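Summary for the lay section of the report: proteins are chains of building blocks that fold into shapes. Here we show the chain for Large neutral amino acids transporter small subunit 1 isoform X2 and then a coded description of the shape we predicted for it.
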Amino acid sequence: MKPFFHECQPPEDAARLLAVCCICVLTFVNCYDVKWATRVQDVFTYAKLVALFIIIAAGVYELAKGHTEYFTFTNTETEVTSLALSFYSGLFAYNGWNYLNFIIEELKDPVRNLPLAIGISCTLVTIVYVLTNMAFYTTLSPAEVLGSEAVAVSFAEKLFGPFAWTIPVFVALSTFGAVNGILLTSSRLFYAGACHGQMPELLIMIQTQRMTPTPAILIMALLSMLYLTVSDIFALINYVGFATWLSIGVAVLCVPWLRWKAPDMERPIKVNLIWPILYLLATIFVTAVPMIASPVETGIGILMILTAVPVYALCIMWTDKPVWFVKGTTEITMTLQRLLMVVGKNKTAQL
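The coded shape description reads as follows.
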């Protein structure tokens, strides 16, 4: 919306409404056809790369002219707590590498292609993002970067003149593609949880005509809209970042644990234990230290994780459910099943 509001910031309500519209459009695309969703992802990924390559090219040109005055580390924060919190915003930009694991069931030859896809994507993203940040600092000072709500837009306004409007368009396309990627992959996480009986049975169901996990996609869309109620994006990044890295850290902990408890288990993909151990040490740093520096934000992150406890107790631990409860939840599931035209595995309905 920035190109339409040259002299002022876009209204927050208008931005939220636009975000809701984007989520609804992408939800429809993901519910309608998986191929549509992957094509949308490809197109908007290419658009993002085009924008980044334009920025990198401009940065290289400025660097060749000798603009390195902002490359110094003057006034850099060295406090451990500030360093740990800064990881959340930094890692947020790289978030996405873990989403590939969510769609492993839909990958062709995952034993070969999953490590290959993660290796190529992480390497490419790291190179491109480092060069992009280098480009920003050929033109913008650290104070301008910190004070900007959209660094790429500020960079374009300062360097591209009348063509500055192109970068906000590319930024919008990039975020649009990012939302599509999250809907595409995270909905499969809900689906997998339901397959193991840890989430409502409705989430295991697939649309009869389109063969897409429609209920899981709709839940993801509703949660995404719920996040729009938080106005402070950096606080939201800290909430979700803490919960995300704590959850991933616990998952990675399973690797050395299972190597110890089940050494003979078949492992199609196997890594050296040094990597999960290093990852665990890093996770401890980025989760334990912020508890001291920002207890409120990390506390909210812990509460987000703990919301799963009553769901687990209700769905899994409570095995002796009364007849009225089972009948009521079954009716709700069947009503939604008819409404969405979805079918699931042949098993007794659960909450």
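Put simply, here is one thing we learned. Residues 1-229 form one domain.
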